[in-house]
Every structure is written in C-alpha cells, then in structure tokens.
Give the backbone structure.
Amino acid sequence: MKKILVMNGPNLNLLGTREPEKYGDKTLADVEALCSEMANKHHYAVDFFQSNHEGELIEKIHEAGKLFKAGELKGVVFNPGAYTHTSIALHDAIAGVGGLPVIEVHISNVYAREAFRHQSYVSPVAVGVLAGFGISGYGMAIEALISRP
Ligand code: DQA
C-alpha cells in the first residue's frame, strides 16, 4: 500500500494540553487516528512522525524524498510548528530533495495571530497550505494530496 507521511514539528507532542484555546483539546494521538482513518478510506497507509528537533525533521524529509522517487510515497502533510517561521534549513531540505509534494498544515490561523507567524519559510516550497481548520486540516490535506495526479 502506498504511503502518506504526516510530520509534526516542535511542541505538537503537547497537543491536548498546550494552549487549548488556540489548538483545541485533541491530542497528537487523536491527530494520528484521524489521519489513518482518512488515508485508509482511500487505501493509503500513514507513517506518522513528530520531532522537537530540526535536524531530525530534515532527515525525515530526505528519507521521504527517496521514498517518493521510488514510488512508495504519495507525499507529505507537514505541520512544522514554530520552525515554519524560522527554518531556512527545512525550506532547503524540501527544495533539495526535488519534486516531493508537501502540504503545509497549521491548526490555528497563523495569519490572524502575531506578525512573526505571518512569514513561512515552508510555504514557497509547499504545493499548498491549510491553516485555521483545527485538526480537521490534516484530513483535508490528506485528501488534497490524494486528489493530486
Ligand atoms: C502551528 C502554528 C505555529 O505558529 C506554532 O508555532 C505552532 C503550531 C499551528 O499548528 O497552528 O507550534 O503550526
């Protein structure tokens, strides 16, 4: 079965207890269950990965680039957390592997928040961006990825 990689960056392991007024009360395990259900419905499997370390996220993108080229991976749904707004290295990793479709997801509407969240280094190398739909955004991103030719 072809795979979709769902990646989450720093502090997203705290979902459920972290600023629930902004991110809701669902946990990362709930996000994983939602993603698996959505992907399985379309006969895809999910590889779910979270890290608080930029280098680990970069290495996972490198690995995803290889799997994509081998035809084993449809693409990546990625919530880079705060690294969205700081990481040229993640931008370069996505650009560097070449052709890997990445959909950027944010639980909150980053554009309705502080100005420092309005810049994303990932958006220019993403095929699309979803923000502000809560954890449902992950499911929407999976469907968007699957609907791509
Ligand atoms: C976030 C938004 C980021 O600005 C923040 O640093 C996060 C979560 C979101 O899902 O809304 O960690 O990516």
Remarks:
- The two ends are 17 Å apart (CA to CA).
- Residues 3-147 form a domain with the Rossmann fold fold (CATH 3.40.50.9100).
- The first strand starts at residue 3 and ends at 8.
- The chain has a mean pLDDT of 98.
